Amino acid sequence: MTEVNDKPQRIAKASKIDEITTKLAESDAVIVAEYRGLTVGQLAALRRQLRDAGAEYKVYKNTLAIRAAAAAGIEGLDEILVGPSALAFVSGDVAAAAKALKDGAKATPALVLKGGVMAGKTLSAKDIEALADLPSREVLLAQIAGAFQAPLVKTAGLLQALPRNLAYGLKALIDQKEAA
Predict the structure, then answer these.
(1) Beta strands in the chain (DSSP E)
(2) What percent of the chain has pLDDT over 90?
């Protein structure tokens, strides 16, 4: 009789594992944070910030998340999933999502960054904080463009200086000849 009652639970668990596996496979990164002590309002605000950063913040049972990670071929997540944990599935700018989580942790000390996974590599809490300290994608692109532009501007200045200095030298020579 217990088998009959367990079947809907097994189906529900299997569908949750499939859901988590799909989210893990589609995400660019997954960041794990401990949510113990957060109020419903604080969680809602955090979810809103993460949604704006291109991430989805969900709470799942650790055992289901560990099984889903194994099914998705992601290693190292089982070591991070200890205690009350929530997963931030990031699609797009990982640094923006890490920054939103770090800001949330500053505003609410109960939120603790545990680590995550990005491109098949396990990230520690310090790695997540380092990602959060990176400038935004637009700023990085502007810095790269500036780095490419600087040598070109310098070369153009040097190429302009050559005829200008030649003209100054000729003018000085002409003035000297006229004075003599």
Answers:
(1) 29-34, 55-59, 85-90, 112-118, 121-124
(2) 7
